[in-house]
C-alpha cells in the first residue's frame, strides 16, 4: 500500500507530520537515494528506502508512556547546563527512545506523556483540539469568586488572552491562608497557571498535573512510569481527524 512520505517519516518516530513536511521542503529527505523537495510524494514502505539527514529510517514499534515527572527534572531529553531531565528516568528502561508530549515546568510535577508517535503527540499539544489538562494547585491565599470568574473567562498574559479555563477551590484553610485549586486548561503556555495566579498576587506552592484527556496519573509515584493501556491508546488514536 502506498503511503505519503511525510506520514511515513512521522510513523517512523522521527518527528511530527508537520515537521516532516518542513524536512522535505528543506531537502533533507531522500527516497532511494534521490532528494525529495516536494510534498505529496507517495512511497511503498515495503520497497522504498527513505533517508532523513542521510540516515535510513524505518517504522518502529510505537510506545505510549505515562510518566510521573518529579520536581527538579526538565521535560526534555537534554540540557546544556547539565540539569536532570526525563531521560535520566527512562534511559536503559526502554527499547526505543521516546519524546515528551508538551512540557511540564521544572518546578512542577505530575503526569507527562511520552511517545515516539510524532503525529499523535502533535494532536495532544495543539490547542485546536482542546485536550483538557487537569492540575491540582496549592496556593498561598484564597482566590475570591470574582477572581475565579476572570480566570474562567480568560486573562491577558504576554502571549495574549488565555483560553477559557476551569478554576475551582477544592478546599481552603482560613488559618494558614492556603487553598487547593483544581484547574483545567485547554492550552499550554509556559508557566501559564503560575502567571495567571500571579496577576492577583497568589503564589503557587505546589503544582501537580493529574490528567491529560482520558489519561490519568493514577497511583504512579514520582519518577515512575507505566505503559498506557489499550483503552488509553484507543483514545489517543481517536484524536486523528
Automatic annotation (TrEMBL):
User: What is the protein's name according to its record?
Assistant: Pseudouridine synthase
Q: What region holds the RNA-binding S4 domain? A: 3-66
**One cellular-component annotation, GO:** cytosol
Q: Which organism is it from?
A: Dictyoglomus turgidum (strain DSM 6724 / Z-1310)
One Gene Ontology term of the biological-process aspect is:
enzyme-directed rRNA pseudouridine synthesis
Under InterPro entries, the record lists:
PsdUridine_s_RsuA/RluB/E/F_cat, PsdUridine_synth_cat_dom_sf, PsdUridine_synth_RsuA/RluA, PsdUridine_synth_RsuA/RluB/E/F, RsuA_PseudoU_synthase, S4_RNA-bd, S4_RNA-bd_sf, TruA/RsuA/RluB/E/F_N
List, in alphabetical order, the Gene Ontology terms for molecular function in this entry: RNA binding; rRNA pseudouridine synthase activity
Q: Which PROSITE patterns match?
A: S4 (PS50889)
Concerning its family, UniProt says: Belongs to the pseudouridine synthase RsuA family.
Q: Which Gene3D superfamilies match?
A: Alpha-L RNA-binding motif, Pseudouridine synthase I, catalytic domain, N-terminal subdomain, RNA-binding S4 domain
Q: Name one Pfam family in it.
A: S4
Swiss-Prot/TrEMBL keywords:
Isomerase, RNA-binding
Amino acid at each position: 500500500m502506498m503511503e505519503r512520505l511525510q506520514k511515513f517519516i512521522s510513523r517512523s518516530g522521527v518527528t511530527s507530520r508537520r515537521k516532516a513536511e518542513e524536512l522535505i521542503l528543506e531537502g533533507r529527505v531522500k527516497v532511494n537515494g534521490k532528494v525529495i523537495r516536494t510534498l505529496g510524494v507517495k512511497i511503498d514502505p515495503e520497497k522504498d528506502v527513505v533517508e532523513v539527514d542521510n540516515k535510513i529510517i524505518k517504522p518502529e514499534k510505537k510506545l505510549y508512556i505515562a510518566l510521573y515527572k518529579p520536581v527538579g527534572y526538565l521535560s526534555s531529553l537534554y540540557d546544556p547546563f547539565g540539569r536532570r531531565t526525563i531521560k535520566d528516568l527512562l534511559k536503559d528502561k526502554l527499547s526505543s527512545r521516546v519524546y515528551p508530549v508538551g512540557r511540564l515546568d521544572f518546578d512542577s510535577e505530575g503526569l507527562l506523556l511520552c511517545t515516539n508517535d510524532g503525529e499523535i503527540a502533535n494532536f495532544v499539544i495543539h490547542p485546536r483540539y482542546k485536550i483538557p489538562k487537569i492540575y491540582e494547585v496549592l496556593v498561598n491565599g484564597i482566590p475570591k469568586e470574582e477572581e475565579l470568574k476572570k480566570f474562567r473567562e480568560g486573562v491577558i498574559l504576554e502571549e495574549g488572552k488565555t483560553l477559557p479555563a476551569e478554576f475551582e477551590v477544592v478546599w481552603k484553610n482560613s488559618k494558614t491562608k492556603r487553598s487547593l485549586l483544581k484547574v483545567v486548561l485547554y492550552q499550554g503556555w509556559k508557566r501559564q497557571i503560575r502567571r495567571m495566579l500571579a496577576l492577583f498576587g497568589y503564589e503557587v506552592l505546589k503544582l501537580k498535573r493529574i490528567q491529560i484527556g482520558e489519561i490519568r496519573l493514577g497511583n504512579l509515584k514520582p519518577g515512575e512510569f507505566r505503559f498506557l493501556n489499550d483503552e488509553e491508546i484507543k483514545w489517543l488514536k481517536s484524536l486523528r481527524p
